[in-house]
Design brief:
Chain lengths: 117, 112
Amino acid sequence: EPEVTQTPSHQVTQMGQEVILRCVPISNHLYFYWYRQILGQKVEFLVSFYNNEISEKSEIFDDQFSVERPDGSNFTLKIRSTKLEDSAMYFCASSDVKGGVANEKLFFGSGTQLSVL
Amino acid sequence: GESVGLHLPTLSVQEGDNSIINCAYSNSASDYFIWYKQESGKGPQFIIDIRSNMDKRQGQRVTVLLNKTVKHLSLQIAATQPGDSAVYFCAENSGGYQKVTFGTGTKLQVIP
């Protein structure tokens, strides 16, 4: 079964450093997402991306965050200047199109655990 | 504000018994609900979904019940197996299709 893959599985960084989290969505999917999960808490929506632009974002997704589809297969999340509170598991997800809109059924990757020291 | 939450943080069930995981939601406009299973070290995995025009949907060993009157959702797992041990999240989408709101999760522990 096709799956969403994320790299790296763990990322340790110093506060103030930039990090890029990488994802390869399922190949025929057109909608891409980032979610995060702080330890012991809910999975939280960050951003959705379609047709090379952000289609929806949450209040968490401030100017320190950006997303990019640099080529036909990768989808990245960049945090420009990491803060301690950015430490979390970051999940990439993708979905295909159903009836002309995003299919609500999301496929998640296994996540990147980001630790900001 | 809008929220999706779970009644019980941890549920312990004997292997072979049925499990029921409950969820309350507050957004009356929610029209699509999903149950996800998250095993340790993995991302959420889709289990079953239900639309607001239904009150019951069955899958393989799982059933989701929706009571819109009291804004309550439940996941029933028949003949619970050790492999069912995980955290289960209910989630909702209120029509935007692009933002799924997750509940806080219930940890299911299956006792062999």
